[in-house]
Write a structure and sequence with these properties.
56% of the residues lie in helices and 18% in strands. It is of the alpha+beta class and 637 residues long. Helix 1 packs antiparallel against helix 2. The radius of gyration is 34 Å and the shape is elongated.
């Protein structure tokens, strides 16, 4: 009881503190503005001493955060920044008696800084909201009784009860029940998904309408939800080449501005005949209008907004560098199994001998194959269940011969299920020869079934193409991106999938090292190449590509190696990601051109003595806010 009360009391304190920390910069700016207003009133009433005191308070309170940031960089990191320029300009204005102008500079600069912090935080909110979606507790079934434990204490194999309306606390597989699940937070899919026994569910998704029991398949730190959070947090810290260049450029630029300002403090007096006061004043204006605030803010808000947009749509970028590189992609290589195709074989054709019933044939084969662990056997059993053959018989004398097939006795009749050579090549050659040859040429795997009378029937299976794969290839073509499938499968299968998806080129029988060589060759031909895969064998090729893209349900090695992760395995999202990258680069270019243009115009205006200090501040800070807001447009769509 005591612990519960303590936790309840502690939560509001933490919330209040975080809210104050989030807005304290804005609070200080507002109080600085209030003291500025008081100082101007006192000055008009000719209470000069009190007015100066109020101006000083406006300087100290309003400029606290920017001064702290500027001097920290100067002392600790030995670098110059725009904050230092603003503080020096305000102090210079005060020295020559322009208290009001200096205080206005501090107020507008601190207010714009607070607004910049707010707008940058806005781009992080998609991620912060995501972190709040995971439950902290789970209801575990132990010996038929319910026990509430921390999510972090869940172990693989635990049985977790999830009631209607609750968030699923772990990645797992449904072992009991059926329901509809809202997976929007994880996959970006707006429509709820029907889930039944053996279907996978993800931590952080919402159980809509049915009680289910979930068998835990991953510990808390390995769930897809945690991977998403880790990937996006990493992306926030990794800077694009453009951002790194601007940050390096900032220090050199600030030094240049300080040199020019130092020269302006005396040269115009001798060369242009300005008064000493006017000369010093124009030098202070130069400090303001030439500082590169808008230029520095041109990239990061846009990059973070694009990353947040991608996360919301099931596209995880591991950093701005990969997002920026994506727009230059000229060719894309794709693995077949698990990428273009579903990665699981499905029954496509069933042929039985004359006089035999298909339903009875499937009942027999599924009853036998239910005792095999082979993926083909699992596909046949699932197909039979979908054909309403749910109650299977129990065969006798079952023998699973690895690499060949399975034998069994059912209703005192012996059966053999497996590849053609296991059944007998001569007999298989005579069984619906024309149809089976067509199926074989199309790249399908054939499973033969024989009984004491001869060949009973044949089942054709194929790893089917994902519904979104054809659409994705079409969109690559529209974007002028060359597509190539590189797969370890044999020629016939590769040819069949390539024809179905309309991919530009395919290469079959590829080992992992062959895939690497093919990606390198594509880079020589096209320069910038993306690689899409999901398996361990794809990891080396993902690593050598310009941009590696992993499927969300792929292996941990592929996900860790890749630069981008598609949470929902939706290949059409790649085209969206490329368009997002191009939009981001366009907006960054717009921001850079606009910010440089404003700086040049203000500098010219200052030399023509047409720009006052307050006007220079408004033009400078206004351009900074505009480029940030322009970058935030990437949150939409």
């Amino acid at each position: 009881m005591g612990e519960s009360i303590g936790l309840t009391k502690a939560e509001p304190v933490a919330t209040e503190k975080s809210l104050f920390q989030e807005h304290q910069e804005l609070i200080f700016a507002i109080f600085g503005g209030l003291f500025l207003g008081v100082a101007i009133v006192l000055q008009n009433l000719e209470f000069q001493t009190f007015a100066v005191a109020a101006f000083l308070l406006s300087y100290v309170i309003g400029g606290f955060f920017k001064a702290k940031e500027g001097f920290t960089d100067l002392v600790v990191e030995r670098s110059l920044n725009v904050e230092l320029l603003m503080i020096l300009a305000a102090i210079g204005a005060a020295i020559i008696g322009y208290w009001a102008e200096g205080a206005i500079l501090i107020f507008i600069f601190s207010l714009s800084g607070a607004l910049e912090t707010y707008t940058l935080n806005k781009s992080h909110r998609e991620i912060s909201a995501l972190m709040e979606l995971q439950p902290e507790e789970a209801t575990v079934l132990v010996g038929g009784t319910e026990k509430v434990i921390a999510v972090t204490a869940l172990q693989v194999g635990d049985q977790v009860l999830v009631k209607p309306g609750e968030r699923i606390p772990t990645d797992g597989k449904i072992s009991k029940g059926q329901t509809t699940i809202d997976e929007a937070a994880i996959t970006g899919e707006s429509m709820p998904v029907v889930k039944k026994i053996d279907d996978h569910v993800f931590s952080g998704t919402v159980n809509m309408n049915g009680a289910i029991t979930v068998t835990v398949t991953k510990t808390n730190d390995e769930t897809l939800f945690q991977k998403i959070i880790e990937l996006v947090q990493t992306a926030k810290d990794e800077k694009s080449p453009s951002q790194l260049f601007i940050e390096k450029f900032e220090g050199t630029y600030v030094k240049g501005v300080l040199i020019v300002v130092a020269l302006m403090m005396f040269l115009p007096h001798y060369l242009l005949g300005w008064s000493w006061t006017e000369t010093f004043y124009r030098a202070m204006v130069m400090l303001v209008v030439a500082s590169p605030c808008a230029l520095v803010a041109s990239i990061m808000p846009a990059t973070l907004s694009a990353i947040s947009n991608g996360a919301r749509n099931g596209i995880l970028f591991k950093g701005g560098v990969h997002l920026e590189a994506l727009s230059s992609i000229k060719a894309i290589a794709l693995d077949k199994t698990g990428t273009l195709t579903k990665g699981k074989p499905e029954v496509t054709n069933v042929i039985v001998r004359d006089g035999a019933a298909v339903k009875e044939f499937l009942y027999t084969v599924a009853s036998i194959e239910s005792h095999s662990t082979h993926p083909l056997a699992e596909a046949i059993v699932n197909y039979a269940k979908n054909e309403d053959i749910s109650v299977l018989a129990q065969p006798d004398d079952v023998e699973d011969i690895t690499g060949w097939g399975i034998t069994a006795t059912l209703n005192e009749k012996k059966y053999k299920v497996g590849k053609r050579s296991f059944i007998g090549d001569d007999a298989a050659d005579q069984f619906f020869k024309e149809e089976t040859e067509k199926l074989s040429i199309s790249g399908k795997t054939l499973v033969y079934v024989a009984d004491e009378e001869g060949i009973y029937g044949m089942i054709a299976l194929q790893d089917t193409v994902r519904d979104v794969a054809i659409e994705a290839i079409r969109r690559f073509h529209e974007a002028g991106i060359y597509s190539i499938m590189i797969t370890g499968d044999h020629e016939k299968t590769a040819q069949s999938i390539a024809k179905e998806t309309n991919i530009d080129e395919y290469i079959a029988n590829c080992l992992p090292e062959t895939k690497v060589e093919e990606v390198k060759e594509l880079k020589r031909r096209y320069g910038s190449v993306a690689m899409v895969g999901d398996g361990i064998n794809d990891a080396p090729a993902l690593a050598v590509s310009t941009v590696g893209i992993a499927m969300g349900t792929g292996t941990d090695v592929a996900i860790e190696t890749a630069d981008i992760v598609l949470v929902k395995n939706d290949l059409s999202k790649i085209a969206k990601a490329i368009e997002l990258s191009k939009r981001m680069n366009r907006i960054i270019k717009q921001n850079i051109i606009f910010s440089l243009s404003i700086i040049v115009l203000l500098i010219i205006g200052n030399f023509l003595q047409q720009v006052s200090l307050p006007l220079g501040v408004i033009g400078h800070e206004g351009s900074t806010i505009l480029v940030i807001l322009n970058g935030l447009r990437l949150l939409r769509g």
